[in-house]
């Protein structure tokens, strides 16, 4: 008996042209899904505070957090985030591979990928935005938009 990860099965099906009826698409009308990949609790808290402040209560967000690269890959596939906040300095994270996985999957291709980096750290051009330490709530809200919807997703 062998088990395979859903991402591997989906990749195989796409490569072979096999339709995937279970495949969900990023729905701009759905509750916005945010994935935060960072091992610094103060950064995670700053992003969560910005998303959950009083001005966003009517909008609501579904948020997942992980502090490791393996779970980040798994969550990109299963959670299908609209926004991914990714610490580029996280041990074991190959930002290029994560961005490629997001961009090549039709279900997440429109997700906005935001680098979290210290001042002075070079960030790959593939990122849609960059948050610099210390994280400002206004910067997070500028990225996710005052009203999250289709206009906030990557075009």
Explained architecture:
The protein has 155 residues and is an alpha/beta fold. It has one domain: Response regulator (Rossmann fold, 3-Layer(aba) Sandwich), CATH 3.40.50. It contains 5 helices and 5 strands, in the order αβαβαβαββα. A 5-stranded parallel β-sheet has the order 2-1-3-4-5, sandwiched between helices. The N and C termini lie far apart (42 Å).
Report strand %.
15-25%
| Biggest sheet strand line-up | 2-1-3-4-5
Total individual domains: 1
Largest sheet composition:
5 strands, parallel
Radius of gyration over all CA atoms, rounded: 16 Å
| Helicity range | 25-40%
Order of SSEs, N→C?
A: HEHEHEHEEH
Could you state the CATH homologous superfamily? Response regulator
Count of separate DSSP helical elements: 5
Question: Looking at the structure, what is the overall shape?
Answer: globular
Please tell me the overall pLDDT: 79
Layout of strands and helices, then pairs:
Elements: H1 6-16, E1 33-37, H2 41-52, E2 62-66, H3 69-79, E3 83-87, H4 95-104, E4 112-117, E5 129-132, H5 137-144
Parallel strand pairs: 1-2, 1-3, 3-4, 4-5
Helix pairs in contact: 2-5
What would you say about this model in short?
By secondary structure, the protein is an alpha/beta fold. It has helices at about 5-15, 40-50, 70-80, 95-105, 135-145, and strands spanning about 35, 60-65, 85, 110-115, 130.
